[in-house]
Amino acid sequence: MNKLPTPNVNDFGAFTSLSNNPKLASFPQLQSLVGTVQASYAQYMAVNGDPALVLNPPISAAEAKLLKAHYKDPPGDLAHIKEIRDSAEHLVCPMCGSMHCGTLDHYLPKNGYPVFSVFSKNLVPACKCNSKRKETLLGANPGERVLHPYFDYCLGERLVSARFEDLGEVPRVSLVQIAPNTHSHHAAIDFHVQTIVQRSAICKYIADRWSSLYRKPSLVVRAFEKNVQTQVAVRSLLEKELASLDDLHKSKNNWNSVFVSGLLDPTVLAWLAVRLSMPGRIPDSPLV
Ligand SMILES: [Zn+2]
């Protein structure tokens, strides 16, 4: 999960240019759509892309087909599509926090909302987590919706943490949503975590990280290559590691930060401190 800067694209100009391009098979059919598209883009921006509020004007099946074809194979007028895709491929997934994106998706799905098929503010880099939600956008209760990486600033806050139970070589791993109940976006955050993050491979990833930590602690936290004598020192090293991971990945909800954030739980800290300070322990040996 991550907040992304809103694409700096002149979408009105891009669509006008597209509709006036005589070299395209869609010419001149899209010209009658310019007013509708521009009004829809403006309304989308005015409500921050909230699917409960965005108006979705009907367009003909033929127009929808033309727009989807332009998304799939963008002409020069829509150069932003390739630019957004290429610029974010290697970054943390803004939807689930995995360590790569790999694809460009529509926040409001192009089948249900064809008018936004080529709108830069509706095009979100993501990993395959976004396709697993299919076309789900809203929950049954007020405020429940999928968060929008370009408009929901709360994605820049720490929202989820790993939870470890039955500590040992193979603990039980789950996720906890850590935004307070009073958070203005609590229902949306909760829905987003359940609908997108929980369905990703995050718990398997975190279990693998734990396995590495258990076997050879320095693989996960470099400072654990030496024995650590107190719980206060363990906490301090983990806090430094967490700050460094947040900074490196430019996200507080990337999967590595979610993992380390879970190690700062008092019960886990105490468990780690006992093992890292055990008298006679060979440095960087398994945490038995
Ligand atoms: Zn993802």
Features:
binds zinc ion; 2 domains; two-stranded antiparallel sheet; 10 helices; elongated; mainly alpha
Q: Which radius of gyration do the C-alpha atoms yield? A: 23 Å
Spatial order of strands in the largest sheet: 1-2
Overall shape: it is elongated
Number of helices: 10
What count of structural domains? 2
The hetero molecules present are: zinc ion
Question: How much beta, percentage-wise?
Answer: 5-15%
Explain what you see.
With 288 residues, the chain is mainly α. It has 2 domains: 11-132, no CATH class; 161-176 and 202-276, no CATH class. The chain is 39% helix and 7% strand. The protein has helices at residues 11-19, 34-46, 61-72, 79-88, 129-132, 186-197, 202-215, 231-249, 255-263, 266-276, and strands spanning 103-106, 123-126, 160-165, 172-177. The strands form 2 sheets. A two-stranded antiparallel sheet has the order 1-2. A two-stranded antiparallel sheet has the order 3-4. A hairpin with a 6-residue loop joins β3 and β4 (172-177). α1 (11-19) runs antiparallel to α2 (34-46). The longest helix has 19 residues, at 231-249. The mean pLDDT is 96.
